[in-house]
Amino acid sequence: GAGVSQSPRYKVAKRGQDVALRCDPISGHVSLFWYQQALGQGPEFLTYFQNEAQLDKSGLPSDRFFAERPEGSVSTLKIQRTQQEDSAVYLCASSLRSYEQYFGPGTRLTVT
Amino acid sequence: GIQVEQSPPDLILQEGANSTLRCNFSDSVNNLQWFHQNPWGQLINLFYIPSGTKQNGRLSATTVATERYSLLYISSSQTTDSGVYFCAVGVGANSKLTFGKGITLSVRP
User: What is the DSSP string of B60-91?
Assistant: First the structure.
């Protein structure tokens, strides 16, 4: 079946612009995660949803970062007033009732 | 929070060689996954292995949960095995994964 998809795959934003990154999880997966991967590092947790409920947002680096999953399926990660330090790959993962997470291809964000 | 250490940080092999990649973690976990990140950045699931031993073709993995480490074995390596290998751990159902820094593997023809 189809895996996790993310769009856009690449995004270039000027400093100060707002961006929205989309994640389509595997159909039927109740859990959805966002991670941020800086160049040369492992992914780092941002936030977690179970259905439409955001149960953990402890990894969001600032109040400029906001995530939602209003109908328990598609999720959007929004970054307001982007800064250069926001440049990274943003990864989405989903899981069913097991612990195993499956990752999308990521969105590479470059802030100029 | 939980700490994850992977070793060695870099590994260069000739095609056909075998290798062992190690992951140490600092606390009890109930989720442990190995991933291969290909040159396009996609994280590919290799094993979900919070304990025990699994094999899939030329790859196998062992996790000794009581001693807080996991090993990934690659046999008869191929150039397509090149990339970064990540170990990631989690605690609790559907909880966040904490990743190691990865092991960069280069397999030369």
Answer: EEEEEGGGTEEEEEE-S--GGG-EEEEEEEE-
